[in-house]
Amino acid sequence: MNSRWSDEAAIGFGPDLLAQRVYSSRLLGAEDSLVLHGGGNTSVKAACRNIFGEEVPTLYIKGSGWDLKTISAAGFSPERLHECQRLAALPELSDAEMVKQLRLALLDPTAPDGSIETLVHACIPAVFVDHTHADAILVLSNSPQGRAALPELFPEFLILPYVMPGFDLAKQVHQAVQSGQLKGKKGFILLSHGIFTFADSAKESYEAMIEAVSRAEAFIAAKAAKTSLPIAPSLDLGRLSAIRKQVSLLRGQPVIIRRDDSPAALRLSQSPECASRGPLTPDHTIRTKRLPAVLGADLEASLAAFTAEYQSYFDRHAKSEHRRLDLAPRWAVWQDRGLLSFGVSRQEASQVIDIAGHTAQSILDAESLGGWLPLDAAELFAIEYWELEQRKLKSNAVRPQLQGKIALVTGAAAGIGRLCAEELLRQGACVVGIDIAAGFDDLKHPSFLGLRCDLGVEAELKAAVERCVAEFGGLDIIICNAGIFIAGDYVEKLENNVWDKTLQINLTANRQLLKYAIPFLKQGLDSAVLFVGSRNVGAPGPGAAAYSVSKAGLTQLARVLSLELAPDGIRVNVVHPDAVFDTNLWTPEKLLSSATRYGLTVDEYKRRNLLKTEITSPDVAGVCVALCGPLFLKTTGAQVPVDGGNDRII
After folding, report:
1. Does residue 547 have an active-site annotation?
2. Burial per residue of 468-495, b for 16 or more beta-carbon CB atoms within 10 angstroms, e otherwise
3. Which contacts qualify for 484-493: CB closer than 8 Å, 24 or more apart?
4. Is 389 left (phi over 0), alpha (psi -120 to 50) or beta?
5. Residue 619: phi, psi to the nearest 5?
6. 8 A C-beta contact, residue 609 and residue 578
7. Element (H or E) spanning 46, and its range?
8. Mind listing the pLDDT tens digit for each residue in 258-304?
9. b/e sequence 300-323, b meaning 16+ C-beta within 10 Å
10. Of the CATH numbers 3.40.50.720, 3.40.50.80, 3.90.226.10, 1.10.3720.10, which one belongs to the domain with range 406-580+620-642?
11. Which stretches of 301-380 are assigned E, i.e. beta strand?
12. Dist CA 131 CA 209 (whole Å)
């Protein structure tokens, strides 16, 4: 690990202490092996001028919910330093009371809650304090040989036994300061938790962290066993989709899967018993639970073993005030295939797989140092069911209605398809959008994957379905929106190529897509298929035979599929739009020409329906997504017009 410090860059952040704190905090946050997804915390002691012009000694501590990688000055909670120090000196303080008092000690009521380790930082007699959950330090403290080497390897650090974060740790550090144990030290290492460094300058404290972690990394590297790189087997998509469904049922809501088949993940999956000892650091149990599931050949038996162990773990350690979490794993060791994470959102699944990957490498490193020795189950339970952390989980209880669902939308680069994709994302789904046009560059969303796909090529349709399952873990929703309308002629003059191309894109491609998607939809959660038809199905016009026949055939395909897929709980419905003029198919010139042909103004032409209302792409997309959601959970085989009312249809 190399220092990223730049004097020039530091000056660019500004000369004051808080600006320097922001700069060095971001340097720490840039190292995943130091902090992950909001882990770690930093502080600086400075003065804050109050409304009376008085300088108040202040502890600026990383606020809850902020990530060191991107933190700004607003992310630091300004706490009255002397009050924090007095709190740390109390003989007893409950977690709830500590949080309350820290809120009262804030100099800015709009600031975020300070870190749960605020009192620890307040105790330390240095201007800058850095705390990380460095992988290398944890490997040493969680292995027999590493733990034995700590005093000699880090003589300028105090080695402290593990205690609960919050007031217990603050009390331990306060006593160490009062007894002079930290005098002349650069920091301290808390077993099974992490490392603290401190100094009167941001640079000195940061570089002490980097140097200490580098020293640990070098020690591990010298002991590491030489192994050949494992080869990842081909991905079993059917198995992956089945795993997702079973984990979703255990959790009580759909989950997204992320995969890790890196060399470390594959090696751990070949020795899954190593992962069944405990997490990298107790803090991770909030996101990962104590242990992963180990998935072998018998999926049901593997998950049953996990749920039985978790129930037993809860029963052994729970008190009357505890309410058991769901029985679903947050990550799994997929034997010989790597690691999987499960999250109700793409973000959660990504955070867990990152933690799992770091855990895998750290466990393997620890095996070279005598084995992995995490904290015992009781101490891990205390963190997983800690009141302060459970409160954070409960604050996120409200979720979008399609959260965790996985959808595929055809013709998603523009128009109705694009709006369907955006609405699905807004409602919490992960979306794969496919289109022959390149139109996804401006749709930047972590839960969206845009693929170029020619609907006229069956192999590309198959590949799109497989990529969707590989990326997110399964498939629940398909919206078949893509279609073409080629200005045709009366049947006696209709060219074969117009007929063939129209039927291929509007009808045959949808049948081919469903052929490959249905096996995964059968393993989905409340799966739904939605076809975008046309008013022409019920009220065709002359000169549009290819388009009208293709949409009529699509509607009939939907009716057949609704019969075939109902036993598997898969809904199949159709939306029939009409007069949707805000798409790329309609230019102002074409719209004016059509309106003139009927002797109408453009506005009258747009509203040429019984309700005298304009039909827009968002109107159609909203109905499409609604039919795929929980509101229409018991509807299949339906044909829903979105046309403002058409007398020819009625």
Report:
1. yes
2. bbebbbbbbbbbbbbbbbeebeeeeebe
3. 485/544, 485/547, 485/585, 486/546, 486/547, 488/543, 488/544, 488/545, 488/546, 488/547, 489/543, 490/542, 490/543, 490/545, 491/545
4. alpha
5. -60, -45
6. yes
7. strand 41-49
8. 999 999 999 999 988 888 888 988 889 989 999 999 999 999 999 99
9. eebbeebbeebeebbeebeeeeee
10. 3.40.50.720
11. 331-334, 338-343
12. 8
Whole-angstrom distance, CA of residue 327 vs CA of residue 34: 30
Q: Spell out a b/e string for 336-345, using b for 16 or more CB atoms within 10 Å of the CB, else e.
A: ebbbbbbbbb
Closest CA to 525 of 237, 239, 331, 242: 242
Structure tokens at 78: 């300004």
Q: What is the mean pLDDT of residues 590-611?
A: 92
**Which residues have CB under 8 Å from 222's CB, separation 6+?**
none
CA distances from 529 to 6, 177, 348 (A): 55, 65, 27
Q: Read off the pLDDT band of 395 (50, 70, 90).
A: low
pLDDT at position 441 is 84
Tell me how far apart the alpha carbons of residues 130 and 411 are, in angstroms, rounded to a whole number: 50
Of all helices (H) and strands (E), which one includes residue 556? helix 545-565
510 burial type by CB count under 10 A (0-12 exposed, 13-18 middle, 19+ buried): buried
Residues 6+ apart with CB under 8 A from 168: none
DSSP designation for 230: P
Residue with the two structure tokens 């109408």: 600
Q: Tokens 């170029």 identify what position?
A: 452
Start-to-end C-alpha separation, the chain: 72
Q: Do domains 7-223 and 406-580+620-642 have the same CATH topology?
A: no
Q: What is the CATH number of domain 237-394?
A: 3.40.225.10
Q: Which amino acid is at 69?
A: K
Structural contact between residues 503 and 549, judged by C-beta atoms closer than 8 angstroms: yes
Read off the tokens for 437: 């046009």
CA angle 382, 85, 25 (to 5 degrees): 75
Instruction: Report d(CA 427, CA 413) in Å as an integer.
Output: 19
For residue 392, the model assigns a pLDDT of: 61
Q: Which one of the listed residues 23, 313, 547, 605 is annotated catalytic?
A: 547
How many residues would you count in the chain? 650
Question: What does pTM read for this prediction?
Answer: 0.92
Give the C-alpha separation, 83 to 77, whole Å.
14
Q: Residue 296 in 3-state DSSP?
A: coil
d(CA 412, CA 624): 13
Q: Is 308 helix (H, G, I), strand (E, B) or coil?
A: helix
Give which of 529, 573, 534, 528 is closest to 552, Cα–Cα. Answer: 534
Query: Residues 537, 551: contact at Cβ < 8 Å?
Result: yes
* Burial zone of 567 (CB within 10 Å; 0-12 exposed, 13-18 middle, 19+ buried): exposed
Owner of token pair 């505890």: 322
Asked whether the beta carbons of 475 and 469 are under 8 A apart, the reply is yes
pLDDT by residue (tens digit) across 509-521? 999 999 999 999 9
Classify domain 7-223 by CATH number: 3.40.225.10
Structure tokens that stand for 39 in this block:
């882990």
Half-sphere exposure at residue 350, Cβ-oriented, CA atoms within 13 angstroms: 9
Enumerate the domain spans of the chain.
7-223, 237-394, 406-580+620-642, 582-614
Alpha carbons 283 and 39: distance in angstroms, whole number:
8
Structure-derived torsion over alpha carbons of residues 562, 247, 392, 347, reported in degrees to the nearest 10: -70
Residue 497: CB atoms within 10 A of its CB come to 9
